[in-house]
Amino acid sequence: MAAQTQRAVLAGGCFWGMEELIRRLPGVVSTRVGYTGGDVPNATYLDHGTHAEAIEILFDSERTDYRAILEFFFQIHDPSTRNRQGNDIGLSYRSAIYYVDEEQKRVAEDTIADVDASGLWPGKVVTEVEPVGPFWQAEPEHQDYLQRYPNGYTCHFPRPNWRLPARTKG
Questions:
Q1: Of these residues, 8, 11, 14, 112, which one is catalytic?
Q2: Cα(135)–Cα(32) distance, integer angstroms
Q3: Which CATH class is domain 5-141?
């Protein structure tokens, strides 16, 4: 049986650290970083307007699912800080989920509700949930950045023993 490849587009601060951690997940086929969710066509690092730094993920749905990717996403960045991750401040560094279909939107909203109910973060989730739009691939020097510079900047890391419980639905 042939693998079913699906697409996810996420923003959670600087795209270098997001890419490096997400690429290691079982079932992730490929990643690329770029700009999405904003107002500038053909966005670049020097001119990306209101776009977020984002990561496009292709994953094998027979080996992982969208929910598992979102749970990891919420573990490696702080979704309760608006327009900021670590030392990076501004609209480019916002937390956002760009869904490709209504099922991804439903899973995103359900996962956010679980994160909010869990109390794992100091505040409520401010992650935007929006339909995916154009994705402008970042320049070559931004792709695979931490592969080429293993000691380069990142503000993302897996939190030890972090496990998202499903909320009690009543």
A1: 14
A2: 10
A3: alpha beta
Question: Given the DSSP bridges, would you call strands 136-137 and 52-60 parallel, antiparallel or unpaired?
Answer: unpaired
Write the CA distances from 104 to 49, 65, 131, integer angstroms.
Answer: 26, 10, 10
Whole-number Å distance between alpha carbons of 101 and 7: 10
Query: pLDDT tens across 100-153, in order?
Result: 999 999 999 999 999 999 999 999 999 999 999 999 999 999 999 999 999 999
- Mark whether 14 is an active-site residue: yes
Domain extents for the chain? 5-141
Say which amino acid occupies 155. C
The DSSP secondary-structure symbol of 130 reads: E
Pick from 84, 82, 97, 85: which is nearest to 17 by CA? 85
Closest CA to 91 of 162, 43, 139: 43
The pTM score is 0.95
Cα distance between residue 115 and residue 78, in whole Å: 11
Predicted pLDDT of residue 168: 76
Tokens of 105: 């939107």
What is the pLDDT, as a whole number, of residue 90? 96
